[in-house]
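In response to reviewer comment 3 from the previous cycle, which asked for concrete evidence that the modeling workflow produces usable outputs, we include below a single protein chain processed end to end. The sequence was submitted unchanged, and the resulting structure tokens are shown without manual editing.
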Amino acid sequence: MAGVTVKDVSPHAFVKAYAAYLKRTGKLEVPKWVDLVKTATHKELAPYDPDWFYVRAASVARHIYLRKQVGVGALRKNYGGRKNRGNRPHHHSDASGSVLRKVLQALEKIKVLEKDDVKGRCISQDGQKDLDRIAAQIARAAEKA
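The workflow returned the following structure tokens.
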């Protein structure tokens, strides 16, 4: 299928496929502390999925593909959630900036992202090609099924 982009496929299917691709290639540098850390202050436990770092990296790559310039602050807000404050009302709590910064740095190292002149990070040419190639594979598989 010619001209298939990330926007044309299911977000869930894309993130799952791209995370599997990142894990399979082994290029993405995963920090040693991923099995110990929580992803946000409002969380009580660390993620159950041992491959959560790959999934988060795939999700961040997709997010930056769709929105041209994104910084750590915007990602913290996006991946945040509601803080349980007992019997008081819930409030929004941002996600961990350190985890997202390490994800961005890992994606930069494999040339999926690059620093933007103005602010934050943006998708690189090679990164866009990779993401579109994965999206085309998903669309082809969905067409056959």
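The radius of gyration is 16 Å. We consider this sufficient to address the reviewer's concern, and the full set will be provided in the supplementary archive.
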